[in-house]
Protein 1
Amino acid sequence: MALTTQQLFDIRSTYGQAVSQRKEVFALTKPQLDAALAAIDGWLDANAAAFNTALPVAARNGLTAAQKVELLYLIAKKRFG
Amino acid sequence: MASGDTLATFFPADNEPPATIYAVYDTRNAHPVLVFDGSTDWEAVFTAILPRNYAGGGLTVNCHVGFASATSGSGRLQADIERMDASSLDTDADSFTGSFQSVGVTAPGTAGQIVVGAITFTSGAQMDSLAAGEPFRLKIRRDADGTSGTDDITTNMHLFAVEIKET
């Protein structure tokens, strides 16, 4: 289920603060960032089932949704962050 | 006092923050700044007395601002005035005009540079009929949600200084 408008707003606000604190150059406007967040959210919606299927059976059945997401985050962060 | 003369100046340490949605004090390379959020309207408030030699013209509020990370895009600034006239204003409640005056600024190509947004008030109701010798409060707001015009910068804005001059 897609995030609500308020949830996406909260993410944009949090991310804006984080980038500001790091003083990184950031070129996206608010509408452009909003579009990116919506696209990422949509991609997660579209690929959640495929992600779950890609997990070994033990992990698929033995991990909670929150644990699976945490592992996804950690791997993505290590690879690209 | 003539047109163009400085009437008051304010710096981050002068801020009297409102109870909520207040700009946050910080430093940038040891320069004191007030930080304004990129998504939610945050405000700062300053108090002064309009100098006795004010000549009765309009006011221009020059906001000296920079951006934390943005090197392009538009920011939006607003200002409002509350006259604190003797035997009239009840200071237990806010009495700003409620009609913000606004201006847009363009982020400099270098994030550390300052740009000046000039917000103009005509003499009279726009400046709450403030008169020479009277105390007043000036509220500065970043219109981050773009109510009065485009503010498309995601990241924080830094307020370095405010000057009020006679227009």
Protein 2
Amino acid sequence: MVTKIVSKNFDIPNSHTLEVALKSGRYSSVEKLLKMKPDDIIEEVTKSGLRGKGGGGAPCGPKWRLMPVDDPRPAYLLVNADESEPGTFKDRQIMELDPHLLIEGIICSSYAMNIHSAYIYIRGEYKLQFERLDKAIQEAYNAGIIGESIMGKCNYKLDITVHRGAGAYICGEKSALIESLEGKRGHPRLKPHQKECEWYFDNPATVNNVETIASVPYIIDKGYEAYRQYGTEKSPGTMLFAMSGAVNNPGVYELAFGEKMLDVINELGGGIKNGKKLKAVIPGGVSCSILTSDEVSKAVLDYESMRNIGTSLGTGGMIIIDENTCMVEVAKNIIEFYHHESCGQCTPCRDGTGWIDKVLKDLLNNRGEMEDLQIIDDVCDTMNGKTICVFAPAVTSIITSIISKFKGEFTAYITKDNKNKKWQTS
Amino acid sequence: MNDKVKITINGEQVEAPKGMLLIEHLLKNGIDIPHFCYHPTLGKDGNCRMCMVEIEGSKRPQIACDTPIKEGMSIHTNSDMIKQVRKDILELELINHPIDCPTCDQAGECKLQDYYMQTELHESRMDVENKNHARKNVDLGKNVMLDQERCVLCTRCIRFTQKITNTNELGVINRGDRSVIDTFHGRELESNYSMNIVDLCPVGALTSKDFRFNQRVWFLESFEAICGACSRGCNINVDHRKEKYKDDKIFRFRPVVNLDVNGYFICDEGRLSYKNEAINRLENAYTQGKECSMGNAIKSMREWIASNKNKTLFLVSPHLSNEELQTIQIFAKEHEIPLSGYSPQYINESLADDMLHTADSSPNRAGMQKLGISQDEKFFKKELDDARLVVVFENSYFDANSGLLGDKKSACLFSVRPNDLEQFDIVIPLPSFLEKDGTYTNCDGIEQKFITGMQKNRPLEGLVDIFKESL
């Protein structure tokens, strides 16, 4: 079931060191890369159908095409390593176990877009990953892989800098990430009215997720057809799926798109912990709608299938919830996170997340009223689609889906009906 | 921007400049659109989400401050959907607001209040004990107090310090609904334009240390005037109140928008110069140091001028209006009295800044120049030597040069009490610059008219009346 493309070297001891990485085939794509024209590289990536793996799933090639050609200003590649979505820990594996793959990916992507400076914006809490990445970059500089030239073969200057975030979830949003990288407060920017690249200090820039960049070397090395042999027509290739929660074997598994979610949980995840029944799955980090066990049995892991059942693939970080979990507590846990992390820039999200948090707290403390569910519904409606970034719509989708799919558990708290608190072990 | 396109606003077809921000067009055409964060000088920020409009063909409501005008767009600013959206967003603005309007200085000119009244009144669904709390009286430094609980985080104040004064003292601290405005650690507001953030603040979060707790705004009456603190001639609103049995009193100055002169702002010094009105006013006439009636003082002065015709010097000041200067000029010409406007004491280069304040702390030097009144030092000194009688009009030159009058006779006409009243034989009080009508010519040569709206119990006779008749 597992298809190892990005995670190929994860199991090799000391794979994060340059010595092992070179032996394991890292930087092998560079030779082919330097023979290609930048435009052909973008074409290759476009044909491969590679999609952004940070949660949005936007096609990568067309995004690179948004970079202006013949612009005299320097261009930048900004790698989004601010992985903070709850239930998502895939980029972490890449930076921890195969940082040279990321560097190789940066070389390929930068060369394709005529970029000479790349920044990796890494989540502040990733200390080990930062250290390994930083060390790998030093090794690459010392070995002449990056710096004044690429592996001494091509007179192409490339610098890679790692920048540590200060712990804000919102800095994973690309425009907030850029603001933060520019030294400002991490507030998302207003969206442009037409499709265009990002702007870093008013210079053209592209923001890509770590896993997306790490997928590029394979495409360059083996060609787009090799990549497309995995996955589905519209979701080609593989993705690192993270599994956490009530499963026997939590972890990160690289799968081709199109696998059945239930099979993945049962075969790779080893089934539900302690022989319990599956109750629900949050499929791609907490920013998408929850699936009930019935829906999970129908769920297929690709972008289109997930959208068809009313949720999204997101980052592929599945959170498995068993029958003994109280969904009100799940909702409270999630909204507490969002309340804490809302950047506070625009009104609906700033005050909405806090209000829902307070209402759910009252509910859990048996001070809930029937009107409360209406309040949550109204606030979610105000937050949906009326804010600068997609933080608030994400809150809306998870909170309203939990409430609508497990309404009985919420009303049981309000009516103080202990018989209906089905999650309690008898 | 010059291209006009046809758009439809609330069913009515109008022409609008292509690419202009929709909110700008709506506000310019008097179409009410609630907003907190947008301001013409600070631009869009898109954070308050109050200016939502419905655009036909668009799935969701859009903010007018981030919608460029396009050919054929049809928008609704008051549809049921928009009214509901506004109400919902306002509800969120208010859940953590302390609703302390009875003790808030902004009450009566508060956007939160206005919009709440417009969007149908609704009961709060938030328990009072569940509200967030923050610091209620933060001293931001120069002239401004902050109440963090009342703040709607529109960030106008922050953007003002970033874009207008470039002083960057303010920022948002913390995240989510714990976000508050504050100064950066160890800093305080330092610019001479800080008090503009009080006007910019749409709610009661930022208040003027000077004005707060002094007056409910609905008791105040306003008239437009010209600030007299420097030669820029900034347009101001004079907020004053005449309470029963009391004299008319000025409580504050606020800027009036005039893009040719001051734009949207005024400096703090000018804003606080209303205080000079109340302090040190000269209200009574004196002869030889003894209080006397206005009539007697004017009569004595006129007699002295008549008997010293060839030995008199008139010293006027750039604080006088064009009309006053002209009247005196005509009078002086008729009686062959030398006229000087020598007044170097008002110029101080260190006062000039790169925004509004000029080096000249008098409002009408350009007008005086235009009338051809000499400011030459030699001319003044020579005529002073020759004179037996010196008549001083609002000119403070002798404050620092009292010895120069020697044993000459002197008369003075002032609205503000001069330092050394004793050195003048005759002292006549004048109405202040806010109690008279006239025109000033500012440093850029723009003539600006002002008409007083003050209702003093005892209005003083103006210069024009005193000198309109010849001897």
